[in-house]
Write a structure and sequence with these properties.
By secondary structure, this protein is of the alpha/beta class. The chain is built from twelve helices and eleven strands. The strands form three sheets. A five-stranded mixed β-sheet has the order 2-1-3-4-5, sandwiched between helices. The N and C termini lie far apart (94 Å).
């Protein structure tokens, strides 16, 4: 038995009701072309239905087998309906044609009337591939230009509506359920129990869908990222999650002695890595922190809130613009996530600033957990000297609230 010819068929979306688009129509046309060249007998038909031509070999099993037959020399000719059935990438088509030419394997296409066994056929294939690349580039430029013009005019580029933009969708109900439940899963249960309409008919509320809506409407409620070396949450020590080790950057952990009276803050990596000093007693460091906290001075709440509202509005507009740029293809996913993270951080800082406005004069007789909560609103972290472990720098959440 000789080496067989190979036919490859593909379509992204197969519609059997369209005779020009069906699998049967492609195969009949390709078999007829093979018969004209004396290759009807023994023709091996490979196919990838409902697969995009932009996918590579790994995601197109039939296309991968086609390449294997070419590379191993197990094919005498390649038949297909058109260039677009083989691949949607000009570089991929060029690679395929060049590989087949090197091995003396002709490529014959029915719709494009291409036969690379002849000089004119090879020239036609090259020209058609170049024209396809040009058309693709021009179409991409037109789309980007049109989208940029829409963004400049303040128009949205979204292809689907946000929840709340269609009749019957109630964003206030989602916000209320989240505020009442305090969690995404709890809010989803409340919304399902209350029969609040979802964005899709006959679909239940899920925590993930609640999260998407809350993130868009009120990103300030998203949890803050914990500092390095410590988890978020309250601390039973006054300086818990505030003191940063100057050697390795880990936040110091509080601990009591056996008698339970003295408190010491230690680096948990102090025994594993070389440290000039790895711990400090609370009584030795607390006076310097009390002196720095005495500089806290809060401005007028009324004027601050007016400015904060304007900043929140600007940040929300910035967030929507970033989403539009991503959907327009002007920025990629990594750039989008980076920009949205910056907006979220700015919103979180506004909320911290608002919380600091409620801080009264600090009473050092308060319980340790209360003092820790207040100090963590005032300070982001406290940097220490590597030798003495005394504070050398205080990072304020709101620097302008420190009086000189």
């Amino acid at each position: 038995m000789g080496v067989p010819p190979v036919a490859y068929l593909r379509k992204s979306v197969v519609r059997q009701d369209d005779p020009n688009n069906s699998a049967e129509a492609q195969e009949a046309a390709v078999r007829a072309m093979a018969a004209r060249h004396g290759d009807a007998e023994g023709l091996v038909v490979l196919s990838d239905w409902d697969k995009s031509g932009r996918l590579g070999r790994a995601k197109r099993p039939g296309y991968d087998l086609l390449w294997q037959s070419i590379e191993s020399g197990a094919a005498t000719a390649i038949y297909s309906y058109s260039m677009s059935r083989l691949a949607r990438s000009v570089s991929e088509l060029t690679r395929l044609f060049e590989t087949c030419q090197e091995r003396g394997i002709p490529v014959r296409l029915e719709a494009d009337v291409v036969d690379t066994s002849t000089a004119s056929g090879r020239m036609t294939a090259t020209i058609l591939a170049s024209v396809a690349a040009f058309e693709s580039d021009v179409a991409g430029e037109r789309l980007r230009s049109a989208n940029a013009a829409k963004v400049a005019r303040g128009e949205s580029l979204r292809t689907s509506a946000f929840y709340g933009e269609k009749p019957g969708e109630d964003t206030d109900a989602v916000l209320a359920a989240f505020a009442e439940a305090g969690s995404y899963s709890g809010a989803a249960r409340l919304l399902n129990a209350r029969g609040v309409k979802t964005s899709r008919s006959r679909r239940a509320w899920w925590p993930s869908s609640v999260h998407v809506i809350i993130k868009r409407l009120d990103p300030s409620v998203l949890p803050r990222r914990p500092a390095r070396g410590a988890a978020a949450g309250p601390s039973k020590f006054i300086l818990g999650r505030l003191l940063q080790c100057p050697t390795c950057g880990t936040l110091l952990s509080g601990d009591r002695d056996r008698g339970g009276r003295r408190i010491r803050y230690s680096c948990r990596l102090g025994s594993a890595l070389p440290h000039q000093r790895a711990s400090i007693s609370e009584r030795l460091i607390l006076p310097a922190i009390q002196a720095e906290a005495a500089h806290l001075r809060t401005p007028s709440r009324v004027s601050t809130e007016v400015g904060d509202d304007a900043k929140r509005t600007a940040l929300n507009a910035r967030r929507l613009r970033i989403i539009d740029l991503f959907e327009a293809g002007i920025i990629d996913r990594a750039d989008r996530d980076s920009r949205l993270a910056a907006v979220t951080d700015a919103v979180v800082k506004l909320e911290v600033q608002s919380a600091v406005l409620d801080v009264p004069n600090i009473d050092w007789g308060w319980p340790p957990a209360t003092l820790n909560k207040v100090l963590r609103l005032v300070f982001t972290r406290i940097d220490l000297d590597p030798l003495t472990f005394q504070p050398v720098a205080f990072k304020w959440n709101v620097p302008r609230m420190r009086s000189r």
